């Protein structure tokens, strides 16, 4: 709700403070609020989460985006995509779905079922679909369906 107010009424200052002291009663909350007021000096964040550290202190957390590159290569056993399994990709005829399907084929998947509402590759993804369909070791089935219906 506060995010909507900030977007719809830019002249209104609205902030959110998430407090969790782990204590019942107001004493812990009052102590945490006092600490937050001191530590918040200079922060312009509209949303702050405050948590006790376990040593009687308080940590403040704010939202930040961090660029990460997950290591998905080691997340699955080497033989996961091998064998007679069929892998279903919802949104499989869009660019992202086709990139993912191609990656699965590169890992050894030999049966792919690509689901999409239109049943056709998006124009910019057509070359990826053609290349994937041309692979002899991969059977590609396209099914027109709406998984959200």
From TrEMBL:
What highest taxon heads this organism's lineage? Eukaryota
Tell me the GO molecular function terms: fatty acid synthase activity
- Xref: Gene3D superfamilies: NAD(P)-binding Rossmann-like Domain
Please report the name of this protein according to its UniProt entry.
Ketoreductase (KR) domain-containing protein
Is Phosphoprotein one of the keywords? Answer: yes
Swiss-Prot/TrEMBL keywords? Phosphopantetheine, Phosphoprotein
The residues covered by the Ketoreductase (KR) domain are 86-148
Instruction: List this protein's GO terms for biological process.
Output: fatty acid biosynthetic process
Spans traversing the lipid bilayer: none
Keyword check for Lyase: no
- PANTHER family per record: FATTY ACID SYNTHASE, SI:DKEY-61P9.11
Pfam families listed in its UniProt record: KR
